[in-house]
Amino acid sequence: MPDAYSSVPLALETLSIHSDKSSYSPRHARRQSAGYPAAPFSRRASLSEDDMPAAARRRDGRGGGIASPARLAAYKKLGRMPEHSEVYQAGRKLVLKTGPDVTPQEAGTLRYLYEKTSVPVPEVLDFGIDPETGHYYILMEEVDGEPLDLVWDLLDDETKAKVVAQIRAIFLDLRSINDPEICGFVPETDPSGRPIPGRYARSGVTDNFFARPQGPFDSEGGLLHALAAHLQLRGGPASCWLDRVVLPLLFSMPPHPPLMVLTHGELNAKNILVRRDGTVAALLDWSQSGFYPVYWEFVKAFFGDVESSVLVRDNVVPHVLDRRYDAELAVMLLAKDIIW
Question: Whose C-alpha in 66, 154, 176, 324 is 20 to 30 A from the C-alpha of 125?
Fold first, then answer.
């Protein structure tokens, strides 16, 4: 299997990405027709050292080392993510995400969505590997808003309906973007390592079903065989069910469309920022995103602590995605029980 961090050049806008939209014009021209707020996010031309806390600037004035231990010590830590990444307030309206599980795939998805669609995401200002830690970092604009899971039960029915309508429009937009392969994608870089505007490359997928990025896969069958191999390696008390139940069910799922859909991978209210007027401000945490089979978004929404997921509890997920995938969910929950 190829190294999942290696890449194959791919111009997403012209080569392999298909959309049922007639065109993908810039976000400011499409927001109202897609059901999102009319005003686009503000854009920054470049990152300035003045945006960094004074204690975090290098004395030689050259910048760099954005995610170095010295700089991280000067930032305000905003939280630790389940996938062992950390999020920091890195200056005026800037957020830095770094850690051993931060990947270029997340940066690639965010950049593509910001540049080419109306899906509301933070603007990526810089990404790369910090030479001192060896970890990837993503430097993003900070988006004003509150996590939906913290305010959902405080909203009246009319505001909830407004929020759900926006989430549905966002995910229908997202799922209209297709690729023939199951893959993530990363920004293509020039010989100096700088991203080439508008150019992306296929890469492995970073779903947490796997311990490390896997793929790309040329079909759903390739993904399922990789998942089966991963399950067989896990062993444990539940593995006795693997050959008898899980694997036969895994390969007997109903057929699905051959084109993969762009998937967030963690449809949860904690990853959705909303403003006080009920406007959806941004979707966060694209660490498991990529092109997956059509049922993957539905299945993954039921992972984790379902009791605390208000979108699952209040039956929002099937409405957002237009249908249920209960047979696929049952099989994947069995596989999840073996892995976790």
Answer: 176
Report how far residue 41's alpha carbon sits from residue 25's, in angstroms, rounded to the nearest whole number.
15
Written as one string, the DSSP assignment of 249-273 is: HHTTSPP--SSEEEE-S---GGGEE
Q: What is the pLDDT of residue 249?
A: 82
CB atoms within 10 A of CB 20: 9
Across all residues in the chain, what is the average pLDDT? 78
3-state secondary structure of 16: coil
Domain 56-141 indexed as CATH 3.30.200.20: yes
Lowest-pLDDT range of 56-65, 204-213, 271-280: 56-65
Domain ranges of the chain: 56-141, 146-337
Helix, strand or coil for residue 94? strand
Measure the CA angle with vertex 14, ends 10 and 16; round to 5°.
55
Q: Is 38 exposed, middle or buried (0-12, 13-18, 19+ CB in 10 A)?
A: exposed
